[in-house]
Amino acid sequence: MFDMYQGLASYKNWDFEIFNYTPAEYGGLHHAAVRIAGESVYRRLKHEGGTHRVQRIPEVGLSSRMQRIHTGTMTVIVLPQPNELDISIDPKDLRVDTFRSRGAGGQSVNTTDSAVRIVHLPTGTVAECQTSRSQLQNRDTALRVLKARLYQSMMGRETEQRLTARKQQVGTRSQSERIRTYNFSQDRVTDHRTGYVTRDIKEFMRGGEPLDDLISELLEHGDKEALLELVVTCSQRY
């Protein structure tokens, strides 16, 4: 998934800056945070946020007779980067912790406390960065991530109030919260919002034209949903 979005950024000529990359103990990725910047980047990526389901046969850690299809999920969160004037934070509301960077298996990869974790005390919101050897650079990056999360939280409260009435009437239109399934054994990717299906999962995971085409389809779908929401809201008012 990480490589897919990195591939999409390359395909769209967007900047791709890694803030945090934590490998999983047995291979793969446990957690990552990146900054992607470029033309229309948030508009095109906002619908990627949600729960992604993966169905595959694990490559490591199982005997041959136990190599059956395993289902896992991962969460993608897409946040807009606010401008400096969009949100202000009182320094007294922040707690800044420093620690040594950690790699796969939890071992330290740096001999100095260059990694930074910032906690916004009034809300409990946390952001951290450990990608740079410079503590100041990690602090600056973590603060940017924290502002983005606080901004998203404020916007989320407004959006939730606006959508609650309609959700109560039409439901979520899905039996679960997953937005997309990647089935490696069947070589299939299915997007559960639009019904999109592709049978070439390897090409899709490169993050090039197939993913970009799906994003365009999701944008059109989102515009239709927004128009329907507006019609419902207007009908309730009048």
From TrEMBL:
Keyword Aminoacyl-tRNA synthetase: no
Family, as annotated: Belongs to the prokaryotic/mitochondrial release factor family.
Biological process terms in GO annotation: mitochondrial translational termination
Alphabetically ordered keywords of this record: Protein biosynthesis
Source organism: Salvelinus namaycush
Designated gene of the protein: LOC120051375
Any one cellular-component term (Gene Ontology): mitochondrion
Keyword Protein biosynthesis listed: yes
A GO MF term: translation release factor activity
Protein name: Peptide chain release factor 1, mitochondrial-like isoform X2
InterPro entries according to UniProt: PCRF, Pep_chain_release_fac_I, Pep_chain_release_fac_I_sf, Prokaryotic/Mito_RF
Domain annotation Prokaryotic-type class I peptide chain release factors: ranges: 100-116
Domain of life, per lineage: Eukaryota
